[in-house]
Amino acid sequence: LCLCFIVVEKGSPSSKNQKCKGKERGPPGKWTNKERVLIFSSRGINFRTRHLMQDLRTMMPHAKADTKMDRKDKLFVINEVCEIKNCNKCLYFEAKKKQDLYMWISNSPHGPSAKFLVQNIHTLAELKLTGNCLKGSRPLLSFDPKFDKEPHYALLKELFIQTFSTPRYHPKSQPFVDHVFTFTIADNRIWFRNYQIIEEDGSLVEIGPRFVLNLMKIFQGSFGGPTLYENPDFRSPNMHRREMRLAAAAKVREKQMVKEMQKGKKTSAKEDLESDVTADVFLTPAEEKPADIQTEAPEPKVVKKKQKAFKRQRMQMARR
Amino acid sequence: HFYLYEKVNIIHLHFIAQLQEAFAAGLLKPGMNVLVDKPKKLVNNVEGLKQCLADFRKDLPWVERLDLTNLPAANIISQAEEKASAPAAGELDADDDFQREMFFYRQAQATILEAMPLLNRHSIATKRPEDYFAEMAKSDQHMQKIRKKLISKQMIMERSEKAKKLREQRKFGKKVQIEVIQKRQQEKKAMMSAVKKYQKGMTDKLEFLEGDQKMNKESSQGSKKAVNKKGPSAKRKYKDQKFGFGGKKSGKKWNTKESYNDVSGFRAKIAHGKGGKKGKGGKQNKRPGKSVRKKMKNRS
Q: Where is this region: Disordered (chain B) (predicted)?
């Protein structure tokens, strides 16, 4: 537990554009890198996804919001929406079956796009994520060296860099760099973390949000076009759930089969044991006794009883 | 168009004819043709990916992107314990939560350590000055909540620690108590046996009293002066000797070697009868001697 890392910031949440003593809040340089990201979702998202989207918009000052899109519309409609909003990148969250969340990241007019399955979402509001940062400060981006080894990862890295890094001198940005986004590859997934830089020697606290991206496909065009890459390790959540159910069912079926076999064994006709020839070896028949039949009833026994005198009489006799 | 369809049809018919022949010849048997899943071919268009990347990438100066690629910083803890740092070399185990999170943490650390000099070169600050007020990503209210939660967690831990210590103390205290009681009992026993020994005359040392006093002195800093310095007084001793300690007289009236050899109480005149009769001239009817009495008895 690091209690010391809680520094209640001297932030005033209400006044956003509070000027400090004589310092120009707006950065002096010109904003040249015109990146704008459109972050929005489809209908049918749950609270966690909604909060994640809001958190991403908080973290990225160069992001714009839009209303929910109906899933009935084709995906390339999104390109038009982006054009209207004058955005050149897009993060689109699609929720299916109210269970699975997919994220599209794309470079809007012509560029590549990728679809991910998002898992393990933790938002900014979780009490265990104790860090904090300036709203709109620029992030450092940290990548795993594995991103350079595969061409599809290299493409994703470029996409992430262009999407997530706040352009310099953006009007809503703060000129300080006080947090770092990490993208790591583990277990064929991309893990995203956001840390606050406390000391320059490298002590960090996690701010959040955090999520895990499971790559599905990379397309050449934005929300369409030929597939450039398909992830062989990807299993759709439906298939995953189906497999679990099948496994459970198989277990039950196996148990039943075993039970039936046992039942069958019990009730099957048993063989009659043949008479054992050797069993007669040890039989020794007893000798025959002459049958003694009594025809008359036996005489009753006569019991002679000794007539003993009473004690007093015996004493008297003895005295005489 | 029509021609193509016809061609396909002809080929199809040809195929069917072949099957019929095979069936007639008895070559077709059930189970010969197994339904095999065609192995799924997954797209991995490496060339396409590279081309796309080349088209798509924007060669921005580092200051715009602020990205770094690095391995995690050395794990000091595991180095200190000399554990084989498996994740550094091989695969990171995504299921071992602690290890995985430490890996991410160290990766971020390494990035910072590398980026600091670069940022300083471009004069980008990482620490905001004290008077710079700006909106934070999480509101103050939220941070207060977090703080409260952390404090409460610590309190709970402390309380459980205290409870544990108390339990230990109680056990220990009980032990100590038992020991003290036993010690006292032993002392009492020793004292009583010493006293008995003195009573019986086995030892005429009264050190057991002194021993007790010495300890008392040590413990009570001599606040109590020794009232009976040499035990009971001489008068008391004489009386005790004569009259005993209330019933323990065994052996007191026997002769010892010294008392036997002690002839100081011998009066020769009295012993030999030469002292003369006392004033009255003795008794009128003097009791006869033992032998005379015996004779009398036998006679009667």
A: 213-300
Are the beta carbons of B126 and A167 separated by less than 8 Å? Answer: no
Nearest CA in chain B to A106: B56
A39 versus A320: the higher-pLDDT residue is: A39
Nearest CA to A227 among A148, A112, A118, A117? A112
Domain extent, residue B66, equals: 1-122
Q: Is any Cβ of chain A less than 8 angstroms from the Cβ of B66?
A: yes
What confidence tens digit (pLDDT) does each residue in B103-145 have?
999 999 999 988 888 888 888 888 877 788 888 889 999 999 9
The band of A175, judged by pLDDT with boundaries at 50, 70 and 90, is confident
In this prediction, residue B290 has a pLDDT band, given cuts at 50, 70 and 90, of very high
B contact test, residue of A34, A177, A212, A234 with most B CBs within 10 A: A177
Based on the domain organization, do B117 and B214 belong to the same domain? no
Could you give the C-alpha distances from A236 to A225, A232, A242, B45, B158, in angstroms and in order?
Answer: 21, 11, 10, 21, 46
Provide the CATH topology of domain A33-241: Rossmann fold (3.40.50)
* Count of domains observed in chain B: 2
Distance from CA of A133 to the nearest CA of B (A): 6
Q: Are residues B201 and B280 in the same domain?
A: yes
Looking up tokens 């300083």 gives B120
B129 found inside a domain: no
Does A26 lie at the interface with B, CB-CB under 8 angstroms?
A: no
Least confident of A151-165, A246-260, A293-307: A293-307
pLDDT tens for each residue of A144-155: 999 999 999 999
Q: Does the structure show a pLDDT above 60 at A56?
A: yes
Model confidence at B10, in pLDDT bands (50, 70, 90)? Answer: confident
- Cβ A36 vs Cβ A85: under 8 Å: yes
Taking each helix axis as running N to C, give the angle between helix A151-164 and helix B46-56, from 0 to 180 degrees, rounded to the nearest 10.
Answer: 30
When mean pLDDT is compared over A257-261, B194-198, B236-240, B242-246, the highest value belongs to A257-261
Contact A176 B128 (CB under 8 A): yes
Among B residues 168-207, those touching chain A with beta carbons less than 8 Å apart: none
CB atoms within 10 A of CB B276: 9
Show which of residues 78-137 on chain A sit within 8 Å of chain B, judged by CB atoms.
Answer: 107, 111-112, 124-125, 127, 130, 132-136
Please name the amino acid found at residue B2. F
Is some CB atom of chain A closer than 8 A to the CB atom of B97? Answer: no
> Region B149-165: what's the mean pLDDT?
96
The secondary structure of B189-212 as a DSSP string is: HHHHHHHHHHHHTS----HHHHHH
> Which contacts (CB < 8 Å, 24+ apart) does range A103-108 have?
A103/A213, A104/A75, A104/A78, A104/A223, A105/A159, A105/A160, A105/A163, A106/A78, A106/A222, A106/A223, A107/A159, A107/A162, A107/A222, A107/B56, A108/A38, A108/A79, A108/A82, A108/A83, A108/A222
Is B215 inside a domain boundary? Answer: yes
CB within 8 Å: B104 and A227:
no
- Chain A residues within 8 A of B139 when measuring between CB atoms: 11, 13
pLDDT confidence bin for B78, thresholds 50/70/90? low
Residue-level pLDDT at B267: 87
Three-state SS at A39: strand
Q: What is the ipTM of this complex?
A: 0.73
